[in-house]
Amino acid sequence: MLLIPCPWCGPRAQIEFTYGGDATVRRPAPDAPEPVWVDYVYMRDNLAGPHDELWLHSAGCRRWIRVRRDTRTHDILAGTPAGDAPRGAAT
Ligand SMILES: [Zn+2]
After folding, report:
1. What is the distance in A from the centroid of ligand 1 to the CA of 4?
2. Dist. CA 57 → ligand 1 center (Å)
3. What are the helix (H) ranges across 1-91?
4. DSSP character string of 4-21
5. How far is the CA of 60 from the centre of ligand 1 (A)?
6. Residue 49 C-alpha to ligand 1 middle, in angstroms?
7. Is 69 helix (H, G, I), strand (E, B) or coil?
8. What is the pLDDT along the chain (91 residues), one digit of tens a residue?
9. Which of 38, 54, 55, 78 has the most CB atoms lying inside 10 A of its own CB?
């Protein structure tokens, strides 16, 4: 089980959170071509290593956080408010 560091509540068990998906994708413009929307909705990279994800502390403060997790080891490297960094800024 993951121990996720909520910026407001402190470290909490994964069971208190709901996974919100890849934090690096950006929503296309409403008039973007269909292939761009297909990529946005369905296509994701399967990265090995540090990756930014969105998690909702659904059984706690009910706030969204951005979690940087190593997909190889499941180590949580950071947990910050989702609004602190623009989406797609992760490297
Ligand atoms: Zn919280």
Report:
1. 9
2. 5
3. 34-42
4. EEETTTEEEEGGG-EEEE
5. 5
6. 25
7. strand
8. 899 999 999 999 999 999 999 999 989 999 999 999 999 999 988 889 999 999 999 999 999 999 999 999 999 999 999 975 545 444 3
9. 55
Query: Which CB contacts under 8 angstroms, 24+ apart, belong to 5-10?
Result: 5/67, 5/76, 5/78, 5/79, 6/57, 6/60, 6/61, 6/63, 6/65, 6/79, 7/65, 7/79, 7/80, 7/81, 8/57, 8/60, 8/61, 8/63, 9/57, 9/60, 9/61
Residue with tokens 């934090």, as numbered in its chain: 23
Q: How much distance in Å is there from the Cα of 11 to the middle of ligand 1? A: 9
* Residue 38 CA to ligand 1 centre (angstroms): 32
Contact indicator for 14, 4 with CB cutoff of 8 Å = yes
Distance between Cα 8 and ligand 1 center (Å): 5
The model carries a pTM of: 0.82
